[in-house]
Amino acid sequence: MQRIVVLNPKGGSGKTTIAINLASHFALRGERPVLMDFDPQGSSAHWVAKRQKTQARIHLIKAFERDPRVTRTFQLRIPEGTGRVIVDTPAAVEAHEMPELTRTADKILVPVLPSDIDIHACSRCVQNLLLVAKVRRHDNRLGIIANRVRVNTLIYGALSRFLGTLGIPIVATLRDSQNYISAAELGLGLEEMKPYNLGGDLAAWQPLLDWLEMPSARSCAPATMVPSVRLA
Predict the structure, then answer these.
(1) Where are the beta strands (DSSP E) in the chain?
(2) Domain assignments of the chain as residue spans, ordered by start
(3) Phi and psi at residue 192, in whole multiples of 5°?
(4) Distance between CA atoms of 156 and 174, rounded to whole angstroms?
(5) How do residues 24-55 score in pLDDT, each as one tens digit?
(6) Kindly report the CA angle at 216 between 162 and 84, in degrees rounded to 5?
(7) With respect to CATH, is domain 2-220 assigned 3.40.50.300?
(8) 0.85 cut: is pTM over it?
């Protein structure tokens, strides 16, 4: 079972878009994914609720909710036979919360938008992951996604130069496309839409999917339960 954590304390970076499209991808391949929504906004949970019974099944865990009738560990339990767990984290995650969020992650994805504010926030996020959460560069667990980009613009050039200084792989460059909004409104992933409408959007995901299949250092560690992260 692989655990994928999508994380960036900066709101609006596209964490949910990444998480739901990964869940859709793995569901279509019969990997029985779990989508764990820690974000109090519940956007991932709202997307799952829109899906039809005829669609590939995605098991949802509303981690942002608290049920006093059961333990937190029981609430966050992963069903037997799960192939992938995708964790949609909330905005405004503090540095001291990152170790618990990422400790059992096989892959950590940090989406970043092409703006000065987002570049600065991404820099701090990566710094905290390396120094506080103790994620090591050579473990092949940490990847950057350049999200909602418009190539051949000045700010995209600035983003590319910044990402090149991090020493962290850029595992995908996703363009600013209305297709993501249209799919989400219907409870669909990008791959579940009619392919002739997608242009190059699907192809842009392939480098990310290939990187997720590459082994990480934690892949060799004993399997452990997803931590009961104490977030709202």
Answers:
(1) 2-6, 34-37, 59-61, 84-88, 107-112, 142-149, 170-175
(2) 2-220
(3) -90, -5
(4) 12
(5) 999 999 999 999 999 999 999 999 999 999 99
(6) 100
(7) yes
(8) yes
